[in-house]
């Protein structure tokens, strides 16, 4: 019982002290929010008193207000209690606490802050929204180094606003990113004089806002962006040749692989291993004999070519369309039509015998 009494006393003392401490943050309610917001630039915290994240941010938010809330200041730091003034938060589509929004003067729609909630990050965000006072021109895009352009939050949006761009979203500590780095630099160098596309990279540990906006959830993420919008996410092998083929495909050029130069009859006789996806499956089986293994990375019997879980998700619909209900499933296709399912032993001799049996001149089942 003594513990609870002491807790109550401390709580009352904090309330009494808080009442005597000057508060620099402006508290808006339903009575004045809509009227005051358009009058000047505002950075507003929409919060819930019971929310732990809101409580942790409160001292930093007050510090920001103490720095910036002056009579002749360019921005006002404010807050709204979503428990007391729920209508404001509903109108502003607030679904989590705290949500931070910047409202430019004369506007009722705010820009959501998505970065780290520390004082330097919050201050930088305000400066970005207000624009540089020292210069009117936008930050210059850095010159490519060996064809590769390194972007920041200041230069990213202007650079990708027009044209086609192949962008690597990465984190310096990521092992896969480190492994890809020399290949990515080589790709940029090989495309240095290709005017149709720029090869770029951006560090997600420094510029989280950009990466969050493009829904980057893993590193590295390789996105094809056209005129400011994400068009595609590259999920294939990360060799220089594979990446180059992908760029050629996205540019609309005829992609030539090392197999394209080989004699067709030789390919048909000896066969090649191709990784099929939902995008290229029908084209891949359209001509000649195709022996296809449908597999899953988690399947103990599927021992080759372990792809990522994302690649499995991409081809889930394909497996469903082809009536695959177990892994691995091995189908033989001829001229685009499913001929047979292989259910025999998986030794090389048995597989070769099965394919030979269904090749030209041996169609009998």
UniProtKB/TrEMBL annotation:
Q: What Gene Ontology molecular-function terms does this entry list? A: protein disulfide isomerase activity
Q: Which Pfam families match?
A: Thioredoxin (PF00085)
The answer on whether this UniProt entry bears the keyword Translocase reads no
Per UniProt, which keywords does this protein have? Signal
Q: Which Gene3D superfamilies match?
A: Glutaredoxin
Residue span(s) of domain Thioredoxin: 6-127, 128-252
**GO terms under biological process:** protein folding
Signal as a keyword? yes
- Identify the GO cellular component terms for this protein: endoplasmic reticulum
Origin superkingdom: Eukaryota
List the InterPro entries hit by this protein, alphabetically: PDI, Thioredoxin-like_sf, Thioredoxin_CS, Thioredoxin_domain
Leader peptide range in chain numbering: 1-18
* Family indicated by similarity: Belongs to the protein disulfide isomerase family.
Name under which the protein is recorded: Thioredoxin
Which species is listed as the source? Popillia japonica (Japanese beetle)
């Amino acid at each position: 019982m003594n513990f609870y009494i002491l807790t109550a006393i401390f709580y009352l003392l904090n309330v009494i002290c808080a009442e005597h401490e000057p508060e620099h943050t402006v508290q808006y309610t339903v009575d004045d929010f809509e009227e005051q917001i358009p009058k000047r630039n505002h950075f507003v915290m929409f919060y819930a008193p019971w929310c732990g994240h809101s409580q942790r941010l409160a001292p930093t938010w007050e510090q920001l207000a103490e720095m910036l809330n002056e009579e002749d200041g360019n921005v006002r730091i404010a807050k709204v209690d979503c428990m007391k003034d729920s209508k404001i938060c509903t109108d502003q589509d607030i679904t989590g606490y705290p949500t931070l929004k910047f409202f430019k003067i004369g506007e009722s729609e705010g820009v959501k802050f998505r970065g780290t909630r520390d004082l330097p990050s919050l201050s930088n965000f305000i400066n970005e929204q207000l624009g540089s006072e020292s210069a009117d021109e936008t930050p210059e895009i850095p010159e490519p180094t060996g064809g590769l352009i390194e972007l920041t939050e200041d230069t990213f949006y202007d650079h990708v606003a027009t044209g086609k761009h192949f962008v690597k979203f990465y984190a310096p500590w990521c092992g896969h990113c480190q492994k890809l780095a020399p290949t990515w630099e080589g790709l940029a160098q090989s495309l240095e004089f290709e005017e149709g596309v720029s090869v770029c990279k951006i560090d997600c540990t420094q510029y989280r806002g950009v990466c969050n906006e493009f829904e980057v959830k893993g590193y590295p993420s390789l996105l094809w962006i056209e005129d400011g919008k994400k068009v595609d996410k590259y999920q294939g092998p990360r060799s220089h040749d594979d990446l180059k083929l992908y760029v050629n495909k996205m540019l609309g050029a005829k992609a030539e692989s090392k197999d394209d130069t080989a004699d067709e009859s030789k390919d048909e006789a000896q066969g090649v291993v191709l990784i099929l996806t939902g995008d290229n499956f029908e084209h891949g089986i359209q001509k000649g004999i195709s022996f296809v293994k449908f597999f899953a990375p988690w399947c103990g019997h599927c021992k080759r070519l372990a792809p990522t879980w994302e690649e499995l998700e991409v081809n889930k619909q394909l497996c469903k369309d082809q009536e695959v209900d177990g892994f691995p499933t091995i189908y033989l296709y001829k001229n685009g039509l499913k001929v047979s399912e292989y259910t025999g032993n998986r030794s090389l001799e048995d597989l070769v015998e099965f394919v030979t049996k269904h090749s030209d001149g041996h169609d009998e089942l």
